[in-house]
Design a protein that fits this description.
3-stranded parallel β-sheet; about 15% strand; 4 helices
Length: about 150
């Protein structure tokens, strides 16, 4: 290896200092040309593609997002059976509030809705925001009780 073969790991190229006199080659207008909107500071014409139809106008508009939609999280009998075992919950008085407090569900993601999925293994009483008709029917048939919270 010779001294002229050594290469730096970092770039040592200096940035051009604009507007530092005519001797620098980038004096006076600093390479921006003369007058007009683009010669001024703080201007970038967003979305302008030189007269070509901009991308945001070429693409089709799609979809709609309802800002007032009620958020609902799913809950089923299998999940309840697991939570009773795992978190040592009292099946006689299960509430939605308790599930949020124990951080089993996140309150910001909406209220809970009981769906008729899985088997009921223990008799439990449940206080919840929403429930399907079949889930209510199945729970009451098994001997449990469900209370819907009015909001």
């Amino acid at each position: 290896m010779k001294i002229n073969e050594i290469k730096s790991l970092t770039s040592n190229k200096k940035t051009k200092r604009r507007g530092r006199g005519s001797g620098s080659g980038l004096g006076k207008t600093s390479g921006r040309g003369v007058k007009g909107q683009k010669s001024r500071s703080g201007v970038s014409i967003n979305g302008f593609e030189g007269g070509q139809m901009p991308l945001y106008r070429r693409l089709p508009k799609r979809g709609f997002k309802n800002r007032f939609k009620t958020k609902i999280q799913k809950l089923n009998f299998n999940m309840i059976n697991d939570f009773i075992k795992k978190y040592d919950l009292d099946p006689k008085s299960l509430t939605e509030k308790e599930l949020f407090e124990k951080k089993i569900f996140n309150k910001s993601k909406g209220g809970l809705k009981l769906l008729n999925v899985g088997e009921i293994k223990n008799i439990f009483n449940l206080e919840i925001s929403f429930a399907s008709k079949k889930a209510i029917e199945a729970l009451e048939k098994f001997g449990g009780k469900i209370t819907l919270i009015k909001k």
